[in-house]
Write a structure and sequence with these properties.
- The chain is mainly α.
- Helices cover 84% and strands 0% of the residues.
- Helix 5 packs antiparallel against helix 7, helix 5 packs parallel to helix 9 and helix 7 packs across helix 9.
Length: 273
């Protein structure tokens, strides 16, 4: 088809630009991402993921991100309590403050903020690093030495991201609850009332549901970031586009998948109880 269009164009003229079909592009993205995830999972299950690289990425994705995540969630918890605790106290709902704020961070805000921060920090780093290797032909060099880029680049990052996201999510939930606890005290909610409400309305299963979400978010971030990095082209500008698109796509997918995960996990919790 392109040959026919080129032959119809005047001598020396470029063929008309054909905009990519967004539906086709979306299907290609989904197919390539899942294929990459399956290949990386196969390498991990065979024990071929490099341990040294995996540990290094675990430190970068998990341990190095915890201070930023704690600062973010502490502030978010304090702001949320500032706006809500006073209203509950005014209408005589002190017994609901601790439970509401604790559930908010265990089920939603903790996992979501952890996923967003890791996507913005580590996801961007992964896409930029792999993208730079692509444009400088380091990935081609790996292939020429019969080294699989999926095994060497993708598998360690996928394993590290999935393994460390629950840890980051746990610290995110703890930071948010701590911030809410401190700010609620300034709004007239005693420490005893806050803790009693949290024990009444929040359960261990709520924590488990939040951590399950972080596992999926970690898988999403690693696969999307690696895929965007491997698809980088056109030099330094392409690295910038890959990094930006990786962060945007990861955050959008985190919010969209959170809706479906909430439905599935809520149904599972009802079945368990």
């Amino acid at each position: 088809m392109m040959a026919a269009m080129t032959s119809l164009a005047p001598d020396g003229a470029k063929p008309p630009f054909i905009a990519p079909n967004p539906i086709t592009s979306a299907l290609v993205f989904v197919g390539e991402t899942w294929r990459l995830a399956a290949q990386a999972a196969g390498e991990i299950l065979r024990g071929r993921a490099d341990r040294r690289n995996t540990v290094a990425h675990m430190a970068a994705i998990g341990a190095d991100a915890i201070p930023i995540v704690l600062l973010t969630t502490l502030s978010t918890g304090a702001v949320l309590a500032f706006y809500t605790a006073g209203v509950f106290v005014h209408f005589g709902g002190v017994t609901f403050v601790g439970g509401m704020l604790t559930l908010s961070f265990l089920l939603e805000l903790g996992p979501l903020l952890a996923g967003i921060m890791v996507a913005a920090r580590s996801g961007a780093s992964i896409a930029a690093e792999i993208g730079s290797m692509v444009v400088t032909e380091q990935v081609d060099a790996l292939r020429s030495m019969a080294v699989s880029p999926v095994r060497y680049l993708v598998a360690p990052r996928l394993l590290a991201c999935v393994a460390m996201m629950p840890v980051v999510g746990l610290f995110a939930a703890a930071g948010g609850i701590a911030g809410a606890f401190v700010m609620s005290g300034t709004q007239g909610v005693t420490a005893e009332a806050f803790l009693e409400s949290a024990r009444t309305y929040a359960t261990e299963w709520d924590l488990v549901k939040g951590l399950v979400k972080t596992l999926w978010f970690g898988l999403t971030i690693a696969c999307v970031a690696c895929r965007q990095g491997l698809r980088t082209e056109r030099g330094a500008a392409g690295v910038g586009r890959s990094t930006t698109s990786s962060v945007v796509i990861c955050i959008v997918l985190i919010f969209v998948s959170d809706f479906f995960l909430a439905q599935v996990l809520s149904g599972a919790s009802v079945a368990v109880r």
